[in-house]
Amino acid sequence: MKIEVQAFINQIQDQTYLTDEYELPTPDPFVADGILAQLKPAIDKAIEKQALASFSVLTEYAGEPVKVTLETGIVNLPLQYIKKVNQFFELDDQAEVNLYLYVTSPLINRSNMRIDLIGTVASFEESAAANWTKIADLLTKDLEAVVIGSQAPKEEPVEKKAPAKKKAAPKKMATTNKMATTKKKAPAKKTTAKKTATQKTTTKKTTTKKKTTKKAD
Question: 51, 123, 132, 185: which one has the fewest Cβ atoms less than 10 Å from its Cβ?
Answer without folding.
Answer: 185
